[in-house]
């Protein structure tokens, strides 16, 4: 009898349990408490005002940053500033280059009413609104408005989140203004980095000063041990000596700024941006998963280099000297790929040579990159991009040549600054930087305070994800560099994967130690006299790489990396090198270019999502 009614009993019991859970759930059928409509409307009105003015403020900061890194203030034109400032309208600038035009327009705006009233950079409405944003007081006044408004009691999540982000952002800006020395030190270190010259190693009888980049490029080509050691030592000694004292001061001001913003030190402030409580544990865990693969790559490279340079220089199981990788920081090992290839008879096409033979220029490089994005139904570069970007270093002009993308926060003006050279590396860099611009365009209609990546690693990953598709044989055929599709057999695939590993896997511990070292610096775990020793301790521990010559307490080798002197947080690149392969896998599956069940039929290493609307939609 009991068995007969068991299903009914079970049903009644289930209903009772659901009812009990519902009764215990405070949110179940509870009356939703909504914001007062008037108060919510006032909050949104204030946010609209803040977003509008902050957009103008950010636009000005972007212009200043662009001008500083492009060295616009030093541009000479056929007209003096006095002549320009007296003009009632812009000169006929058809004969001027883009840098000169921007310099003239900036001077005109600063010295006359013309551009403030006319639709030259934007609409009349835009320039009218510019007048009421005073760079020196805007942030302070805006923060006062935020503090007066009772936004913390608002229940609307999005509204409250915007206020919180504005509050944090403005407090950070004010702390920078409170310590102007902080920005001045960074600017000075960047200037030293971009202007420091080296003796040309190929000129034996005298010191012919050349740009450091010229020697770094030469380092990629030579296998002469004396030349490699000289270039490495010369750059590290010169830049370290010039920058070290400024860096020590920079650390102190960084931590002062962090404390003003309620953080223990600058490392805590950087980590807070990832909005994950156990972020460091996650990073450490990721590294431990990748480390075995890196160790195998390192052991393979060490064995190959021992055959080239001898057992006296490279031990059987020890670290490798840093000057042997063809890269000034040894963060990429791609330049020694031709010396260490698993199957040397299976040559990867010399893409750089083909680009030069076909008379590629910097504009074609970026047009080709653009065509990839548009093929997956992402956006073409806007007209202003082609007008304002600097894609080639101007002759006789000093400029920070580190490639960068810029958002000018007006929804129209996006740019890239790159001292483009005609080679495969610069082609892939163009994809990467244009990936940043595509991301800017995707979120251009968001409130200003939200116009950023989900985290810093996302931004870096987007462009690199596209580069993984671009760095395939079928893509090189598609863009006309290869006449016929090369056979993608087993040996070719292994060589291809190996070349990716030299660029991607070799980089991961470098990105990891960059900020592990800075976290220790900011947390005062190491004294300035031990900065360099600790740098090489971490390098040997995580990378198995040591300096090629003796270093001392006076040395400051971290300064050889631009991001150290430029105050650029670097864990983003570690994150991006994980994310890009996750993104790439998902996009390849969506495009039908990779089958995880039968990977041998369509290997992911040969996936090219070009032309896939499905992949583009997923990426959006």
UniProtKB/TrEMBL annotation:
Pfam families: Peptidase_M2. Residues 1-23 form the signal peptide. One of its GO terms (biological process) is proteolysis. Keywords: Carboxypeptidase, Disulfide bond, Glycoprotein, Hydrolase, Metal-binding, Metalloprotease, Protease, Signal, Zinc. The active site is at residues 433, 563. It is an enzyme of class 3 (hydrolase). Binds 1 zinc ion per subunit. Its cofactor is Zn(2+). PROSITE patterns: PEPTIDASE_M2 (PS52011), PROKAR_LIPOPROTEIN (PS51257). It comes from the Eukaryota. CDD domains: M2_ACE. Chloride binds at residues 274, 572. One of its GO terms (molecular function) is peptidyl-dipeptidase activity. Its EC number is 3.4.-.-. InterPro entries: Peptidase_M2. Zn(2+) 1 binds at residues 432, 436, 460. Zn(2+) 2 binds at residues 432, 436, 460. GO terms for cellular component: extracellular space; plasma membrane. This is Angiotensin-converting enzyme.
